[in-house]
Write a structure and sequence with these properties.
Lyase 2-enoyl-coa Hydratase, Chain  A, domain 2, alpha/beta, three-stranded mixed sheet, single chain, 2-enoyl-CoA Hydratase, Chain A, domain 1, 9 strands
Length: 263
């Protein structure tokens, strides 16, 4: 019997890739197999020069309910848990390391590692009735790995409160705290994501890739090193044909004639 893929992969003519988590009956919980499938899909994007944006969505009633606790409890061992969380961490870092923006399209719930997934995406758009929590503490498990992503999105006290209470926050509060960028009516979620995607793909891919790489590098370093890296990145970007054309178009008060290809 044919089994549905755990991650659905779609790519349109613009290079917009949509990855849909596809375990709807399990609220898209991140089983080992799901993590492997998502890693493979992200690696496929990384190898594709024509990819411009990735959208991560969830099938069914939820975005992602975090790790598969039943699977985790079936054969407990320190070695197994270390491998599982390392596997998840590698997948999360791959999102940040991709040269294209990654957008989370969130509906229903995003809990524990599912909330971590939202935080690791570069951008996030949520339905107004979506809810977010890092709820491991409710079962005696501090959400340590989600805390890495959460603390890099939210103010410290807001992140810590979520981690130690396990309480849900709504989409509006998630936006106020910086976890998501935009909130839309549930029936308008896909359209809101498309507006954001269209804005991104209208820009030169080279500038987008250089900028994303620099953005995350400079966050993890001191300010002097960050400015040195930023200056070098911007100088190289300025020598790219797309930037030269964009500046010239601005000077001449006309639309930029950008190639829609990888350059």
């Amino acid at each position: 019997m044919n089994q549905e893929p755990l991650v659905l992969f779609e790519q349109d003519s613009r290079g917009v890739v949509t990855l849909t988590l596809n375990r709807p009956a399990a609220f898209n919980a991140l089983s080992e197999a799901m993590l492997e499938a998502l890693q493979a899909a992200l690696d496929r994007v990384a190898a594709d020069a024509g990819a411009r944006v990735v959208v991560i969505a969830g099938a069914g009633r939820a975005f992602c309910a975090g790790h598969d606790l039943k699977e985790m409890r079936a054969a407990p061992s320190l070695d197994y848990y270390q491998r599982l969380f390392d596997q998840c961490g590698r997948m999360m870092l791959t999102i940040q390391q991709l040269p294209v923006p990654v957008v989370a399209q969130v509906h229903g719930i995003a809990t524990a590692a599912g909330c971590q997934l939202v935080a690791m995406c570069d951008l996030a758009v949520a339905a107004h009735d979506a809810r977010f929590a890092v709820s491991g503490i409710n079962v005696g498990l501090f959400c340590s790995t989600p805390s890495v992503a959460l603390s890099r999105n939210l103010p410290r006290k807001a992140a810590f409160e979520m981690l130690v209470t396990g309480e849900f926050i709504g989409a509006a509060e998630a936006r106020e705290k910086g976890l998501v960028n935009r909130v839309a009516e549930p029936g308008e979620l896909a359209a809101a994501v498309e507006r954001l995607v269209a804005s991104i793909v209208a820009k030169p891919a080279v500038a987008m890739a250089a900028g994303k790489g620099l953005f995350y590098r400079q966050l993890e370093t001191g300010i002097a090193a960050a400015y040195a890296d930023a200056a070098a990145t911007m100088a190289c970007n300025m020598m790219d044909a797309s930037a030269l054309e964009g500046v010239q178009a601005f000077i001449e008060k006309r639309p930029a004639a950008w190639s829609r290809g990888p350059a």
